[in-house]
Design goal:
Elements (H helix, E strand, L loop, with lengths): L2 H10 L8 E4 L5 H11 L7 H9 L3 E8 L2 E10 L5 E9 L8 H15 L4 E7 L3 H9 L3 E6 L9 E7 L21 H13 L7 H11 E3 L7 E2 L1 H10 L5 E4 L13 H20 L4 E2 L5 H9 L3 E7 H5 L4 E9 L3 E5 L11 H4 L2 E4 H7 L9 E5 L9
Length: 388
Amino acid sequence: MSTEHHAAMKTEGRCPVAGITLRAAEADDLQALIDIENAVFDTDRISRRSFRHFLTSPRAIFRIAEAGGILAGYSLVLSRRGTAAARLYSLAVEPAFRQRGLGAALLADAEAAAFEADRAVLRLEVATGNQMAQALYRRSGYRQVARLHGYYEDGGDAVRLEKPLRIGAARPGTVPYYEQTTEFTCGPACLMMALAARKPGFVMDPTVEVRLWRRSTTVFMTKGLGGCEPFGMAVTLAEDGLAPEIYVTEDGPLMLQTVRDAEKRKVMVLAQDDFQRQAERLEIPVHRRRMDVAELAARLREGALALVLVSGNRMFGKRVPHWVLAHSADDHHIFVHDPWVEDKAHESATDATDIPAPFAEFDRMWRWGATRLRAAVLIPRSNGDIDQ
């Protein structure tokens, strides 16, 4: 669909289906939305409380199709802060209005709305047994990127589909994704994804996740268990046969500013000093300078992977240091796997996989703390790597 067509459909509210008007959902539509939800879906229904939330959420694009004051269907698109990705969370057509092309019209309208909101790609999940819906999406240019076992409440499988809305936003690579299972293992989850991408047959599971956490932990959180800094993770990668490089803008122990407990600070300094000595022994290159986004993008296009320290506030609204895996880039976006899935925001792994982060936004999130620490662990592509 061209840029012009996207804009025209959204701004004029026109619909190719006779007698149907497309518009933004409003609070007064709540009961009609609940009624259509109950009529269309047997399981995984959106609750009244969730509908209320979506009707006012700044990250929701909520559109309805109306015929003479009657709700004929709706589309609901969710977006993630700091990224150019969007997810078609739900699309429904009232049974009395089926077989009239309304599903295709709602889908095109949702795409147009996402495009106007500067989204680069639209993703969705659909039940493997729903052949009619799959046919609609495939006719509209979506392609399958994953199969999800046991995705629905009734244990049914789903397929994940996606469509680029902007040129150059096609899904890159096939780096496996892993969702962290604890609040403190974003770093180990990224380590696992990198190891799985570089070592065929590497198994990602919670036991390995915790094992890697034990090997690479050095940072105390404000509360709870500890996280990771670049030297510990680089040492772990090197010990597992990879050839990491460290980019960091500060000398000495890192991320001490928010740690007030003297004993915790002492442990952090000892652990980080030890990791730095191990990194020197393993001859891991350390670049004590600021890598910029353009340089990172160039390295990713060469086939490198990068574990990148970002501010969780710009990713999911929490002021915590957070690790993501950057695995590819186009001319406008850094593509990342974020191991954190925000369940409270109705996210699934779809929202955290292959996220296209615009260069300017990625530059803003690629820092931590008052010192604006910038850190990354880069894993160059070697001659033995399998093409992705």
